[in-house]
Amino acid sequence: MTRLKLSYFGPIMRRQDSLEKSIMLGKVEGGRKRRRPKTRWLDSIKEATSSRLQDLASSLWCYKCENAQYHKDCKEVKCSDMDSFCVTAKNEVPDQELLVSKWCSANCPRAGEIKGGKRSVDCCQTDYCNSGSGSVRGSYAVMGTALLASSFYILRTWL
Question: Which residues form the UPAR/Ly6 domain (predicted)?
């Protein structure tokens, strides 16, 4: 349960001006009758990790590479405190290999046209979330395997 709380906590703390962040930090306006203070959700996070709040909401971790054909060409990097997105951009140009770039960013860039093709962009906000390979060869291999399996199934049902 603590692991689930922690995986939810990091991305929320990196958000700017969100209701969830305000609630977690206990900055909700209003009052309460005098009695024993209630245990807040954030208190259980602090207790479970025994660390300062700044350390909990520390930087995002992403993969970084430029115009790579394979995910193995990318490196793990710790993003700056200002970055809240892991970005994956795929450059698709007809009759050329699919090239993938990955990096940390403060905002999510838009997809668009590039010379002779198009660029698709995926953004995410959790550690190492831009780990997908995006390899065209991998897609063709899966599609070929599925086609082969379907052919065998059809032949078997006819016989």
Answer: 60-143
